[in-house]
Amino acid sequence: MNRIGKYVVLGLGALTLTACATTDNVDLYNKAKGTTPSGSEFNVGLFNGYIQLATEEQNPYGDYVIDPRDRDYYSQKAIDSAAGQTVLPTNVAGPLPPEGCGDDQESAPCTAVPDSRPIPGEAVAEATDGRARLMAAFDQGARDKAPAAAARAQTYFDCWLEQLEENYQPQDIARCRQGFLDALAEVEQALAPPPPPPAAAEEKPEPFLVFFDFDKSNITPESAQVIAQAASRAKQEGAVSIQVIGHADRSGPPAYNDRLSLRRANAVKAELEKQGISGSTITVEGRGESDPLVPTADGVREPQNRRVEGIWIFR
After folding, report:
1. In terms of pTM, does the model score above 0.70?
2. Which of 26, 139, 208, 254 has its CB surrounded by the most CB atoms within 10 Å?
3. 46 and 133 both lie in a single domain
4. Rounded Cα–Cα distance for residues 94 and 92 (Å)
């Protein structure tokens, strides 16, 4: 649009300014406004966006001159969108010529119908990349997956190129550019694959426990059942090794309890081997009374401390 605003040249007669010379076909604009869109949500969004742009070029508030070329361009795109046709974003024609585009009736326009617009050289790369991203999003189904945002992205892109072609309203260039980038980001976010589900926390099985009578290291029938279940789990879940740690309570001398705890660990190892677990995958350790399950004073008999802990090591 050509925003002349309040700056009007007086005393030289009526002077009509347009973005680029073209036939003033206001009937096309009126036809577009009277059209009822149908079809996909994307096409309805395009229609509404292009009607808005055409209305801006028609200048209903009289604060700048009418731009019939772009009004008619957007009106036709609105009509085509309402009819369900495939309407594409404007192409980037390349850099503006050094003399710029004509903006009065005597000057030759850059393009009679701006399906491709020349824009300032410094903006060509960004605009070309932006259009390529938008077209790639369309190829990925953006018209169906994010129709409202995709329609906004296309109409803001066309607005951006128009303002770049005119190249004298920085605030409108910035407004249309930002509208395009915001809408395109929304489109690309909608097309992005969902993030992978968070990795399930690795379940660390509780150690299996085998308890012993006072001053004993023999395997009871109840303990044998616990060990058989442990061996079965090791086979089913692919344990690469089993760590077997023997303990004693604090009722005897520490050195004696060290030896007793190791005997208990070796007894559990032997029972695991009976259940088909290779002895080479079993490590044994005796910790005596140094690591009680239930803290007690020295000399106290505590059944929970007379134990062997078996820990599975998985892949």
Report:
1. no
2. 208
3. yes
4. 6
Q: How far apart are CA 15 and CA 11, in angstroms?
A: 10
Distance CA 124, CA 126 (A): 6
Give the contacts of 27 (CB within 8 A, at least 6 positions apart).
Answer: none
Q: How many CB atoms lie within 10 A of CB 124?
A: 17
Question: Using H for helix, E for strand and C for coil, what is the string for 176-206?
Answer: HHHHHHHHHHHHHHHHCCCCCCCCCCCCCCC
Q: Strand pairing of 208-211 and 116-119?
A: unpaired
Q: Pick from 159, 191, 223: which residue ends a domain?
A: 191
Residue 42 sits in the same domain as residue 180: yes
| Domain annotation covers residue 196 | no
Q: Are residues 59 and 181 in the same domain?
A: yes
| Residues 150-175 pLDDT 10s | 999 999 999 999 999 999 899 999 99
Q: Per the structure block, which two tokens stand in for 79?
A: 């009509």
